[in-house]
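Consider the tokenized backbone below.
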């Protein structure tokens, strides 16, 4: 593989990661949460399940820890257990503002990552990973919880959210 091909591969990986995380998952997740009341954001079917509010706190902590703090070499002050223990109602607007600020930082990180940073070693949350692993973990993890939030939103609202309208006629994008 030539240096140019490696560079193109890194650029393609970062471009796709940015697109999925910031242009697809985040706006759709935000739209779901904005369509719910604060009470719905903190609803949970049982004690073993997370509320949308808990998932928002969790995503904020995860994106900050794995993407922003790791690549900016800043301190990791995350309290992961607190993300799931929270039961007091925090307004959805506050949660979205916090996650929005983190996503803005994530956008800046993804826009400036180099191939060297993608192959460099990091220790995050006690795991020894490479930069590429960290980016992939964030996108995959965000996608997982985004899907849960979509499901909860559909369950509470009882309607399709229309994310794939273009597939309704043929099952393929035009």
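A designed sequence for it:
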């Amino acid at each position: 593989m030539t240096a140019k091909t490696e560079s193109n591969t890194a650029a393609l990986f970062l471009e796709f990661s940015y697109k999925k995380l910031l242009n697809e998952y985040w706006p759709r997740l935000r739209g779901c949460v904005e369509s719910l009341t604060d009470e719905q954001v903190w609803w949970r079917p049982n004690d073993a399940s997370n509320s949308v509010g808990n998932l928002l706190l969790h995503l904020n902590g995860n994106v900050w820890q794995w993407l922003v703090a790791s690549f900016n070499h800043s301190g990791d002050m995350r309290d992961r257990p607190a993300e799931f223990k929270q039961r007091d109602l925090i307004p959805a607007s506050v949660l979205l503002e916090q996650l929005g600020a983190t996503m803005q930082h994530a956008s800046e990180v993804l826009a400036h990552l180099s191939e060297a940073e993608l192959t460099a070693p990091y220790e995050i949350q006690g795991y020894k990973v490479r930069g590429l692993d960290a980016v992939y973990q964030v996108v995959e993890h965000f996608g997982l919880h985004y899907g849960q939030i979509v499901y909860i939103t559909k369950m509470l609202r009882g309607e399709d959210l229309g994310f794939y309208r273009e597939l309704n006629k043929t099952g393929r994008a035009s």
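Residues 67 and 135 are 7 Å apart (CA to CA).
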